[in-house]
User: Fold RNA 2',3'-cyclic phosphodiesterase from Candidatus Uhrbacteria bacterium RIFCSPHIGHO2_12_FULL_54_23.
Amino acid sequence: MGKRIFLALPISRELKNEILSWERGFQNLPVRWLRGKNLHITLVPPWETDDSDKIVTLLNLKGATGIIELNFSRVTFGPNPREPRLIWAEGSTTPQLLKLKSALDVALGREPDPRPFKLHLTLARFRPENFHSCQSKTLNEAVAWRDTATSFVLMESHLLAGGADYEVLAEIPL
Assistant:
């Protein structure tokens, strides 16, 4: 069995601190909060591979877009608000972010997802059946979180009993 890897934008320590501060007001929710190094913006979802050539291809994308401004405006349930399994921050998807996403899909020989790419940052996971025990069935918190992406990362996902843990395998400057 190969590695379970994916591509993501890392977030700054400053944004992580803003998120942790925001989460303190929601500790009563029946969710598993992602912490520290596990917070990221997924660009290409996980896949299984033994193919190290893909990693070399990604390294050739150095400088593909330049830095990318990230602006998050709200925190909500996702991906489907009626049957959610995540709490995530949503933001504006810039042309530069779409350009990077497209370049990564092409470099990996992947068909683009038919759904439009939407900037989001997963903050917490939960089982859909636990949603019914939430006191409030809506979450629409305004935030003004800003960050700057200067690189993307190749990460490996390690599935553990308490949830996934992520390890950075390579960092590629934008």
